[in-house]
Predict the structure.
Amino acid sequence: MKMYNSENIFAKILRKEIPCEKVYEDEVSLFINDINPIAKIHVLGIPKSPCIDYSDFIEKENDKNISAFFNSVEKVLTLLDVKKDGYKIITNSGINGGQEVPHFHIHILAGEKIKL
Ligand code: 5GP
């Protein structure tokens, strides 16, 4: 089993050790602009619990917080005003998924046609 490494960049952002451009925050999640955007809108949704990827999050987190996270994703979609023209939500896991940061997060891509 893989171990969560609390020295990853998103853990440092959550601990406010390094700065970020915050889009939205509540008790369970933080949403920030991606430092290297691949679309006009590129927001990362990061649950605060120490989980490596989607499966780790679903396995370890309780239903209340899982639900709260996905409800906050919906809130941010409204905040970004992307629901009319559409968006793409992606999460990467492991080597085959091309995951760079080993703390579960989703990418919200919008603002233009996403060619992925
Ligand atoms: P992954 O490949 O793990 O799904 O995506 C990690 C994302 O985090 C990448 O899109 C990358 O640009 C972004 N990223 C990496 N380091 C930082 C950082 O220090 N701040 C912010 N805001 N985004 C970062």
